[in-house]
Amino acid sequence: MTDPLLDSLRRAVESAPDDVALRLHLGRLLIEAGQEREAVEVAAALVALAPDDAEARALLLRALSGPAAATPAATPAAPPAATPAAPPERGPSIPPAPAVPGGIGAPVFDWSAAEEQVEDVVQPAFVDEAGQETTEPFLDVERPRVTLKDVGGMSAVKERLNASFLAPLQNPELRKLYGKSLRGGLLLYGPPGCGKTFLARALAGELGASFLSIGLTDVLDMYIGNSERNLHEAFQLARRTAPCVLFIDEIDALGQRRSQTRSASVRGIVNQLLAELDGVTESNENLFVPAATNQPWDVDPALRRPGRFDRTVLVLPPDTEARASIFRSHLAERPVEAIDAAKLARASDGLSGADIAYVCELASERALLDSVRSGTARYIRMEDLEAALGEVRPSTGPWLDSARNVVQFGDDDGTYAELRAYLKKNKRL
């Protein structure tokens, strides 16, 4: 025989499935009516709907405990009998809870048995897939489309890159004759914002190789040994995608002088980097490892020995030809009118590539604000760029000052001869 009240509540729940209070009321009435199985289903669905609701959890507990715990006694509870009553036939086999000192005893049930009863009622929202390997690498491997033709000026830098990497790759017979290995490291150093990262990406595009960039945040980990493992995995990924250019940005952070630090973590990273560059357990053939730094004097000397980062290239602020090219590049997608890139290049001596990009940004902002005020969009003109040039000071000055101190007063074994010549030429030494 059906209960009209329960039927009405079931229909109400179907009409308002998110009504927590309505589900609570239905669940309690089902328990009182002895319909524990349906009560468990209602309570389980309610816990899934409101997992933080204490009444929902209590309802599920009552439903799982059977009719003995479902109906509270009308009179004060009698002292517990010497032999506990047998559990109801339809309820789960759940041991009674010991009384909590100073409080009311609460039933403690077997969670495994409970899960078996409700697993068909509500499915878990999350599935633990621990132990399953993923094929997705933790770093992104690129295929750059830029080449050295996209790098304006910097003929000396391009010549060094050609001698170190491009010529051996493009002439396999001569490479075999002279025993030139397709592996090696190259240290790019110079003021910030002068295009070291862009050069490394262009080198990968010129080689037709994949490009992988790592820095301190990709490697460093708070747990012992994880930083070394991350560095090893980066090299392994580069080896699997060879030919590959593995670019290490801010090498002075990953390869810091061990004599200047007491950190075991930093020492471990440097040791791991030395082992990876040497190819102790793996072949580094077709693996090119350029690195960039603004502070080459802070790089551990062991990283500078032959076979590692033995070739050093100074990347200076762009020359006149390069500055004109950078202006054209950053203005190419903007509405411009009668722009003289050569004149701008002559007026921007000492600016880095990042400085020139900022000049173009300021000029665009000036034209945009003027268009907002007038209500008519206009082109970016020379006057905008010249005004922006007047606001920007070279960001390379502080670096050149610190470099001068190292060259002049530091232990210089000829490593920075090119930098010394540049400083003398610009009357900074």
UniProtKB/TrEMBL annotation:
Residues 70-99 are annotated as: Disordered. The keyword Hydrolase does not apply. InterPro entries: AAA+_ATPase, AAA_ATPase_domain, ATPase_AAA_core, P-loop_NTPase, TPR-like_helical_dom_sf. It comes from the Bacteria. GO terms for molecular function: ATP binding. Residues 77-99 have a biased composition (Pro residues). Residues 182-319 form the AAA+ ATPase domain. Keywords: ATP-binding, Nucleotide-binding. Pfam families: AAA (PF00004), TPR_19 (PF14559). The keyword Ion transport does not apply. This is ATP-binding protein. It comes from Frondihabitans cladoniiphilus. The lineage of its organism: Bacteria, Bacillati, Actinomycetota, Actinomycetes, Micrococcales.
